[in-house]
Amino acid sequence: MPNHPDSLWTKVDKYFGDLLVTTDEALDAAVAANHAAKLPAIDITPLQGSFLELLVRMSGARRILEIGTLGGYSTIWLARALPKDGRVTTLELEPHHAAVARANFQHADVHKKIDILLGPAADTLRSLIKKKSAPFDLIFIDADKSGYPEYLTLSLKLSRPGTVIVADNVVRDGKVINSRSKDQSIQGVRRFIELVAAEPRLRATVLQTVCGKGYDGFFIGVVVE
Ligand code: SAH
Ligand code: DHB
Ligand code: MG
User: Fold this and answer.
1) 1, 73, 196, 197: least buried by Cβ within 10 Å?
2) Whose CA is nearest to atom 8 of ligand 2?
3) Which of helix, strand or coil describes residue 38?
4) What is the pLDDT of residues 49-95, one digit of tens each?
């Protein structure tokens, strides 16, 4: 996704971020550690992190599922928003990403609230379903976009009425409207939205976002039955 360092929306993002998101040593250190470990700089932004924090607090979530950990920047936001007895289960394919995340969680002192489950997320989700895992209160989908349709279907099996489902990167510079896109990420997001549209158990919307990382959007849904 192109970066827009000089754009007005980057300046506006910085204006609100500087005022509303207090500078934070552990989050800054996580970003630096990710960079040093050569992880892609595709974590959510500080204002997006505070948006997830609000969703956790507004929904009163205690059990969170995250699909796609990377260096755990978003996970730290989710974990910190939880009450003392809350937990985040975060799924990651790449052992290297998980190792960087684990160190970031220790540094941020949230490691006791987080379980990292390694492996392809769809397999991990199926094993959670098989083990009759208790339903999650909030699910954040942010792994490979081609997997989104399957992650939605499996997430619904780990949900209850009231579960909040959020998915990152559903706009992708507007490319989502190109039905003929050859990009599997775009086709994955489109199929995901079509599944949502056909799913009576979900009420949902999309919030388009512009920020220092470009033009994108969050899907937000709630399970109603
Ligand atoms: N949520 C993170 C960013 C996640 S980036 C944040 O905002 O800080 C997407 C992550 O999904 C990457 O670490 C990538 O390795 C992981 N991923 C990709 N395919 C996956 C799969 N099949 N199963 C689990 N994780 C996967
Ligand atoms: C990509 C993935 C993300 O989760 C993101 O926020 C931005 C980009 C990507 O795979 O390109
Ligand atoms: Mg993302």
Assistant:
1) 197
2) 42
3) coil
4) 999 999 999 999 999 999 999 999 999 999 999 999 999 999 999 99
